[in-house]
Amino acid sequence: MATINGTPGDDKLNGSWQDDDIDGDAGDDTLRGKSGNDSLSGGTGNDSLDGGSGADTLLGGDGDDELDGGSQDDLLQGGAGNDTLDGGSGADTIEGGDGDDLIEAASQDDVISGGDGNDTIEGESGDDLASGGDGDDLLEGASGADTLFGGAGNDTITGGSGDDVLTGGAGDDVIDAGGYGGGSDTIVFTVGDGNDTIDGFNPASDVIHVGGVALEDVILTATEDPQVWVLSFDGVEGTSLTLDFTHYWNEGLTVEDLIDNVVNIEAAPLPEDPYETPICLAADTRIRTARGQVAACALREGDMVATLDAGWQPVRLVLRHTVLAAEMPGNKALRPVTIPAGSFGNGLPRRTIRASRQHAFLATDLRDDSTEVTIRAAHLAEHLKIATLGPEAPAQGVTYVHLLLDAHHLIEAEGVWTETIFSGPMAMANDPVLRRLIAGRHLPEMTERARPLLLRRDLRAWDGYALGRATAHPDRKPRAA
């Protein structure tokens, strides 16, 4: 593996045919990863990053950057600025960040977040999951069964072919359902979504999924055009959905005909969220490794990480997924818990940590000074009040990273001990996220039990526990195996 650092000037840096770590620093840099699983960071300036082949991590940083993931499953983060991001082939995770970004996902099933700004997102082929975020965004799903969220702003959303789930979100949005060639689409419309329009609505196959009201409060009103109707909610102002099906063969549809196309969560639940119960750390969390403090998203298979019980241990798998901001309202299971720097005592964690609700941290039972247990991030927020659950409607999503070692270990993250994935039989049976992410991968056998988890009822005796003992002193060495 090669580590290549640029200068404050305009650099041209090329990696090797192995796994490279390339940092451009300031300036307008050109970084090329070639083959291998590379980590490229542009830093400040208008940078050009090309991952090449391999599962790469590309971080644009500040400036108007151009990122090309190349082949395989890549993570692209544009950062601030008006960026151009091309995932290339592979199932990519692409985050535009602040600014007016152009995002092209290309083939396979991609996860895309535009972030703040007026973004253009082109999903192309594959079953894509995309969110425009804040701003007046343009989203195109193209082929595949796509799930598209406009987010806040006046968005234009085109589902394309395939059976899509299309959500405009706040603002006055225009949704193109594709008419006869658009597949069987579900258009999600909720109280407070603004005054939206659906072009190409197909009464024979499309469904309107309403939220925030009972079905009996849905009002359908005819206009002068018999193929243009307006859906509104009884007693709710400023929220309407215009249904335009002027392409449709039947000009004589009635209220009774159209109301059959309207459902709510009780009648027809939305598609199951694939990220319902993630157990993981946010991508920017720094992990102690043999090569220093490394962001979780930049870890690679084979990296040696510090564990509490077994010394330096190799990372076997690095898995990641993104939860979009548009998925989080109404589902606190998806929102990260924020653990402020210093909240454990003794200045730890060193930096603020974001983790999923189910992610666990080490605690020690002071009553016998021996038992070590783990406590979920959600309990740190809801019961101990030393952390906070993210806002119900955040401006940006979060990329989570899962780390798998040969066993269930405690690793040092921002100076505190926290868990890795436990892929024992029970965990595999109960965690749909884990099953999806590791499908088809070879896993180490884990038959031993994980550390005991501190349950909610145990928190009533919290005075007998301490997080302070569970933290890692900067000079403390991991226990030998």
Summed up, what is this model?
One of its GO terms (molecular function) is alkaline phosphatase activity. The chain is mainly β.
Provide structural commentary.
With 481 residues, this protein is mainly β. The chain folds into 3 domains: 1-108; 125-270, Serralysin-like metalloprotease, C-terminal (Alkaline Protease, subunit P, domain 1), CATH 2.150.10; 277-438, Beta Complex (Endonuclease - Pi-scei, Chain A, domain 1), CATH 2.170.16.10. The protein is 5% helix and 32% strand. The chain has 4 helices and 42 strands. The strands form 8 sheets. The chain has a 14-stranded mixed beta sheet with strand order 2-4-6-8-10-12-14-16-18-20-22-26-25-24. Residues 18-28 have a biased composition (Acidic residues). Keywords: Hydrolase, Secreted. Its EC number is 3.1.3.1. GO terms for molecular function: alkaline phosphatase activity; calcium ion binding. Residues 47-59 have a biased composition (Low complexity).
Topology:
Blueprint: E1 2-5, E2 12-14, E3 20-23, E4 30-32, E5 39-41, E6 48-50, E7 57-59, E8 66-68, E9 75-77, E10 84-86, E11 93-95, E12 102-104, E13 111-113, E14 120-122, E15 129-131, E16 138-140, E17 147-149, E18 156-158, E19 165-167, E20 174-176, E21 186-190, E22 195-199, E23 207-211, E24 218-222, E25 228-233, E26 240-244, H1 255-259, E27 262-263, E28 281-282, E29 286-289, E30 292-295, E31 304-307, E32 311-314, E33 317-323, E34 337-339, E35 353-355, E36 360-365, E37 372-376, H2 377-382, E38 388-389, E39 398-404, E40 410-413, E41 416-419, H3 425-430, H4 432-437, E42 465-466
Parallel strand pairs: 1-3, 2-4, 3-5, 4-6, 5-7, 6-8, 7-9, 8-10, 9-11, 10-12, 11-13, 12-14, 13-15, 14-16, 15-17, 16-18, 17-19, 18-20, 19-21, 20-22, 21-23, 22-26, 23-27
Antiparallel strand pairs: 24-25, 25-26, 28-39, 29-30, 31-32, 33-39, 34-35, 34-38, 36-37, 36-42, 40-41
